[in-house]
Amino acid sequence: MADPLLNKSIAIPSVNQPSLIGAWLNLASPLVAEALAATGYDWLLIDAEHGPNDLASVLGQLQAVAAYPAIPVVRLPNHDSSLIKRYLDIGVSNLLVPMVENAAEAGAIVGSTRYPMSGFRGVGAGLSRASRWNLNDDYLTFANVDVKVIVQIETKTGLSNLPEILSVEGIDAVFFGPADIAASFGSLGKSTDATVQDAVLKGIGQAVGAGMSSGVFSGDKEFLRRCERAGARLLGVTSDAGLLISNGKRVLADFTR
Known about the structure:
Elements lengths: L19 E6 L4 H10 L3 E5 L7 H11 L5 E5 L5 H9 L4 E4 L5 H10 L26 H8 L1 E6 L2 H5 L1 H5 L6 E4 L1 H7 L9 H16 L3 E5 L3 H10 L3 E6 H17 L1
Parallel strand pairs: 1-2, 1-8, 2-3, 3-4, 4-5, 5-6, 6-7, 7-8
């Protein structure tokens, strides 16, 4: 079976289950990652798309949170199958893949995470942390089912193709990105606009109708609650950078007013 310390797969909740509350990690710091893991968040998103993260820094954060219940999810920078392979080999079991716009892209992403004959992931487990350097004899047996694939819908095109994306076998959840959806609507920086939020809520409803779990990240608490009521169960509610800046400003204001 999967090694619970190295390969913690996220148990993505259905619409009838409680939500999982997550925080974004953008600062590429194992200490910050460990502090937030100790705080009690259900899952932590290590961001290799917009944060200054790479394989080495992601590895350090995986090691830092391994002793805690918090489940690490890694957002990749792109769909590159060779990069997906490398992240899986260092022990990432939960992938969030950005900018997915159609079923063909979603299918290729799933294929990149699966060993033959289910996919085309290269076999290098004997040299990798994911299998404890081949000390976990069962790794190859369970690797295909232990990896969780979450695809991120971030454009008007992705929303229009959502029904087809939801039908792709091997997708475990869809995740909506309001900021990029707003940009694709011509409303850059206006992710709280009603049109954008309604589009996200519609997408969540489509996911519920297809029996698919979904998630969203937002700093707007009321919008997150609306998403939760609509059926989203992976809620990204804050970030390490956001916590540092907002609380830093608050403390400073308390002493300078």
